[in-house]
Amino acid sequence: MLNKVILIGRLTRDPELKYIPNGTAVATFSLAVDRKFNRDETDFIDIVAWRQLAENCANYLGKGRLAAVEGRLQVRTYEAKDGQKRKVTEVVADDVRFLDRSSSGSAPSSFTKREPDPWEDLGREVKLEDIDIVNREDEDDIPF
User: Fold this and answer.
1) Which CATH superfamily is domain 5-114 in?
2) What is the spatial distance between Cα 18 and Cα 21, in angstroms, rounded to a whole number?
3) What is the 3-state secondary structure of 56-105?
């Protein structure tokens, strides 16, 4: 069985950071995710992050920031203050990647993966002076 969710969207509000009685951090926020084929339709998805990931999200994310969330779908029920039973569907985040730079530019792009991202330069503008041009006169020196 598999329960895996990957979302890319913009935060609809600043993350809300709380600590449960045992001292564990939990952050909640919501992502606005455009639908693939109809950009006029948007889904608003609740996200929950725990522990260090929660604290990092609260410190570095804010309303309007672009983020990728990888996690699992969770459906739970609880009893509201008015006594009514409520049902909540949310994504429990395992990894959150910050896809745009903050105004300070100091936030890391991910907090759970430490290896370098081989796709980091994808989509960046390439200047002609940055390209090494192979001289055709040196074709005999090519080892293949």
Assistant:
1) Nucleic acid-binding proteins (2.40.50.140)
2) 10
3) HHHHHCCCCCEEEEEEEEEEEEEECCCCCEEEEEEEEEEEEEECCCCCCC
Tell me if 2 sits within 8 A of 15, measured CB to CB.
Answer: no
Distance CA 16, CA 27 (A): 5
Q: What is the pLDDT along the chain (144 residues), one digit of tens a residue?
A: 889 999 999 999 999 999 999 999 999 999 999 887 766 788 899 999 999 999 999 998 989 999 999 999 999 998 888 999 999 999 999 999 988 765 554 444 444 444 555 556 656 666 666 666 655 565 566 555
Domain segments of the chain: what residues? 5-114
Q: Residue 50: which H helix or E strand, with range?
A: strand 42-50
Euclidean distance between CA atoms 22 and 16, whole angstroms: 18
Structure tokens at 66: 């672009």
- Tokens in use for 113? 């993966």
